[in-house]
Design brief:
- With 317 residues, the protein is an alpha/beta fold.
- It has 2 domains: 5-165 and 203-228, NAD(P)-binding Rossmann-like Domain (Rossmann fold, 3-Layer(aba) Sandwich), CATH 3.40.50; 167-201 and 231-313, Alpha-Beta Complex (UDP-galactose 4-epimerase, domain 1), CATH 3.90.25.10.
- The protein is 42% helix and 19% strand.
- It is built from 13 helices and 12 strands.
- Strand 5, helix 5 and strand 6 (157-163) form a beta-alpha-beta unit.
- Helix 6 (176-187) crosses helix 8 (235-246) and helix 9 packs across helix 10 (264-270).
- The mean pLDDT is 94.
Length: 317
């Protein structure tokens, strides 16, 4: 019996490479999108086959999708120098190309969204996948998810994984937690906006990767699942942990000061109140996030290595 074929976009990224690793270990024949030689080498080292291209190669995306049994779409253009609406338009085009290759097959297309685009609960409680969209730039990505779900009517088993703001672990030096470490080293202080007593959602990268594979196997068409591992950490606690890690003070700044430092998009991102319940993924998919917490990863785990690397690379210069 031949191995089931999986095509993964974003396969060389922080989350995608872990998804690739786990998929290969589970016996899948994995093909991963790669933009350069370094990505090719990484995928080969994981036991996957690299496919050279990017999200603009729509004909390639459709052909790879057509040949696959499962498509996992994790790639997203993170060039935030461009208007976010433009990035969402690029996402919609890529989703269209992938979905067209699966029309009429009922094969799974697992797409990626975020938990941060929904309105927070007014009482500070957790929100579920039915929560209304917030009036934020981040909320515009919901349009791409809705577009993906439109292909359910065309015989594609579309499922959406909504990742929290912070996906962390494995000494990742490119995510938002690492970005805050860089900011703290560069400015000599670890900051949070306002009182910092608002919570965000996060998930350990291995747990997130397993959720994609569970969704491909078990999720019904047209469903979204929050991929949160934890929802009770505050921004003040995060800033304090980072400050202790790099030995700088933690302090509050205003939203205006944050905008002057980071620009409007990152300020919006770092001020989002988001507690996304994972109950649906636990109950319907049997997902069990077991990875260490973000604060532990910062003070005792892999981000100790990340901070040392940043110091050696002169991140504070």
């Amino acid at each position: 019996m031949s191995q089931p074929k999986v095509f993964i976009t974003g396969a060389t990224g922080f989350i995608g490479r872990v998804v690739t690793e786990f998929a290969v270990k589970e016996g899948y024949d994995v093909r991963g999108l790669s933009r350069r030689e370094e990505g090719d080498a990484l995928l080969k080292s994981l036991g996957a086959t690299p496919v050279r291209g990017d999200l603009d190669n729509h004909e390639l995306l459709t052909q790879e999708s057509k040949n696959a049994d499962i498509v996992l779409h994790l790639a997203f253009n993170h060039d935030f120098s461009k208007p976010f609406d433009q990035l969402v338009a690029l996402e919609i085009s890529a989703v269209t190309a992938l979905a067209q290759g699966l029309e009429g097959t009922n094969k799974p297309l697992v797409v990626t969204n975020g938990t941060a685009f929904v309105k927070p609960d007014p009482n500070g409680d957790e929100t579920d996948e039915t929560a209304p969209v917030a009036d934020l730039a981040l909320g515009h990505r919901q349009v791409a998810e809705e577009h993906a779900f439109s292909f359910v009517a065309k015989g594609v088993r579309v499922v959406s994984i909504r990742l929290p703001q912070y996906v962390y672990g494995r000494a990742n030096s490119t995510g938002f937690a690492a970005q805050l470490i860089k900011f703290a080293l560069a400015s000599g202080e670890s900051v949070y906006i306002g009182d910092g007593e608002y919570c965000f959602s996060d998930v350990y990268v291995d747990d997130a990767a397993r959720l994609y594979l569970l969704a491909a196997k078990n999720a019904p068409a047209g469903e979204a699942f929050n991929g949160s591992g934890h929802t009770t950490t505050t921004y003040q606690a995060l800033a304090t942990a980072i400050g202790n890690l790099v030995q700088v003070p933690a302090k509050s700044i205003t939203e205006q000061q944050a905008t002057e430092r980071w620009g409007p998009f990152l300020t919006s991102f770092f001020s989002v109140r988001n507690r996304a319940s994972n109950r649906k993924a636990l109950e319907q998919l049997g997902w069990r996030p077991t990875g260490p917490g973000l604060l532990w990863e910062i003070h005792s785990g892999s981000y100790v290595e990340v901070a040392e690397k940043f110091k050696q690379d002169g991140a504070a210069e």
